[in-house]
Each structure stands twice: as C-alpha cells, then as structure tokens.
Design a protein that fits this description.
The protein is mostly helical. The chain is 42% helix and 9% strand. The protein is built from ten helices and five strands; from the N terminus they run αββαααααβββαααα.
C-alpha cells in the first residue's frame, strides 16, 4: 500500500553521522553477524534521535476496498477490511460453469480402430475438438432458457428454421460426434443384412450402388461437413414447411450431405449413419486424401449393427408419431356419428333432470 509522503513526517532534519567507530581487530567475535549489525545501526540511531510522534490512523480514503483481505503493519497492529457482500445474478459463480452436458467417450478404447484410424487422431479429434464443443456449449447456455433442455431440443430450437442461433454449432457438433463414434466399431465394414439390406437394395438398386452414392456425397461435400444415410418419413426437405399427407414413397432411405454442423434432425429425418468429413477427422492419418479415408471407413469401420438398430428405432418412432397425429386429428374433428351420440346423451340427461 502506498502512502503519500508529506513533510510532517520529517519535522527534524536528518543529520548524517560525523564520527564512526574505530577499526576493530578481525576476530571471530567481531566478525559475527549480530556484532556487525550493532556497529552499523548504533551511530545512525544516535544521530537521528527525535521525539516520538503519536500514532495517527491512515485516512479512510487510503484504505483499499478489498473484500475479506487482512493487512499486517508491524507486530502489534492488524488492520481488517470489512467483507463486502458479493453481488451476482448469474447461476454460475465467478467464471465457474456448471456443466449440463458431458463429454461421452467412444464405445471402444481410443486405439481400438488402429491401423485404420490412429489413436493420435482420436486424441485430437475426440480429446480436443469434441471436448471443446462440450465446454463451449455449457458456457453458452448457462442462465438461458436452453439450460435443462435435451441436446436434441437445443439443436432444433437454436437451428431456428434456418436462422441459426449461436449455440447451434456446438450443440449439433456434440450430437454429430457422439453419433459418428457409435457408427464405427473394431472389425467393422462388410455388408449389412436383414431389413436394412432389403431397404438399401429397394431404394438404391443394390448395395454397391448405395456405397458409391454415399462415397460421392462425402467426397463432394465442399469444405467441412458430414454425409448421412437417413430414414425419411412423410416430411419435406424444408424444415419449416407443413408436412404433406404421408405416402409410402416418402418412407425411404436417403443419402444427404450437410455443411458444417448441420444434421438431418433439423429436417425431421432419422439419421442412421454418418461420416465426418471435416479435415480434423482424417488429416493426421490421410492428409488431403479424403477419398481414401471415406473408402476405408466404408470397408473397415462401419458398424452395420448400429445402423440396423437405428433403423428399427426410427421406424417405431415414426409409426408412433403417425398414431399421435391421427389421435389429435380425431380430437379436433369428431365424426358426425359422435356428434349425434353426444346430442342424444345431452337430451337424455336433461329429461332425467327434469
């Protein structure tokens, strides 16, 4: 703490000493530290003897307004600064953020996909990039109406029918990466079976044609983005349009690609498979050879078991949504027969009351 210096603290001029002690013989006694200090201090103290001034407290304007801070001036006095009440309207105190979303690990060890995808890639892709999306989103949603929402609801809400809000990119990238890790497995690749294979052959002509279209979509996505296999049901390609009446042609598998963080959830599609074509996904292992990375992904890494499970869940969810729409339609537009029954019941009840 700095105290302004004024002349009142030096009422008696300082006079330097004019005499010094004689040179002493160099002996162990005269070379001791305590002896040397006493010889240096004594003449100065004798030359600057003044009348002791009574202690006066520091002006209040000089006391720093630090909360909970203690100062110690000398061994006999301790100054205490009053503790201030902290004013804070945010839910998080200081710069600490209460995390809502956590970084999920891949469903296998980070080296499990080697030699096709290196642990070094996972260390950066999952350990750095994916982690940053989680940390940034948690900071963005603290104290907002988004706090407490599911990740899917945050994505749809912040997509805002194409007028994207700031938290969207981090939220969508968290979901995309979780989905991407679960789209792969050690010893993956090969060919699917069952209903998934039947739908692929129905909607693309053959499995080989599907693979070719998927590779093309991933390779031709300009810049950063994703390629997807999705299950499309009774929806349009415009996220804010009213859905048409369901037809069997609408219920099919489609391949789509999306820029940056956008995913099929915002189009009301059901994602089944994805590949990350951001450069950080493959550059450490493949440099600029994106097509090689895509081919290896399809041949050695895809978890068709996961894709089949997602298809089953998507069809069940789509069927449930259609039933819910039918129930709401019936509630809003009751049939004529129901109206007649309600009228008869009303008349009957009135006659009984009379």
């Amino acid at each position: 703490m700095l105290v302004p210096i004024t002349t009142e603290y030096f009422s008696t001029p300082f006079t330097p000493p004019t005499t010094f002690p004689k040179r002493l013989p160099l002996t162990p006694a005269t070379l001791s530290i305590s002896f040397l200090i006493s010889q240096m201090v004594a003449p100065v103290a004798a030359a600057t003897t003044t009348t002791a001034r009574p202690y006066s407290p520091l002006p209040s304007s000089l006391v720093p307004s630090c909360q909970g801070l203690r100062g110690n001036l000398g061994s006999t006095r301790t100054l205490q600064w009053p503790r201030k009440e902290r004013q804070c309207t945010r839910k998080a105190s200081f710069n600490k953020v209460t995390a809502q979303f956590e970084l999920k690990p891949p469903p296998y060890p980070l080296n499990a996909l080697e030699p096709h995808m290196s642990k070094n890639t996972f260390d950066f892709h999952w350990g750095k990039h994916h982690r940053a999306y989680v940390d940034n989103l948690n900071k963005q949603i603290v104290g907002t109406e988004l706090e407490g929402m599911s990740l899917e609801d945050v994505i749809v809400t912040t997509y805002n029918k194409g007028n994207i809000l700031p938290p969207f990119n981090n939220a969508a990238q968290i979901w995309n990466h979780d989905f991407f890790w679960e789209s792969m497995k050690p010893g993956g690749g090969g060919k699917p079976s069952g209903e998934l294979l039947e739908l692929i052959e129905r909607d693309f002509g053959s499995f080989d044609k599907f693979v070719g279209e998927f590779k093309t979509a991933a390779a031709t996505q300009f810049g950063s983005g994703w390629a997807w296999l999705a299950y499309k049901t009774n929806t349009l390609d415009v996220g804010n349009a009213e859905n048409p009446k369901p037809t069997e042609q609408d219920k099919k598998l489609v391949i789509v690609k999306s820029p940056n963080a956008v995913n099929p959830l915002v189009w009301d599609y059901y994602p089944l498979l994805t590949i990350d074509v951001w450069e950080h996904a493959y550059y450490l292992d493949f440099q600029n050879r994106r097509p090689d990375y895509i081919s290896l992904f399809m041949e050695k890494l895809v978890s068709w078991d996961s894709v089949s499970s997602r298809l089953e869940a998507a069809k069940a969810q789509a069927a449930e949504r259609e039933l819910e729409k039918e129930r709401k339609k019936e509630e809003n537009n009751p049939s004529d027969s129901e109206d007649d029954e309600l009228l008869v019941d009303s008349i009957s009840d009135d006659s009984e009351a009379e």
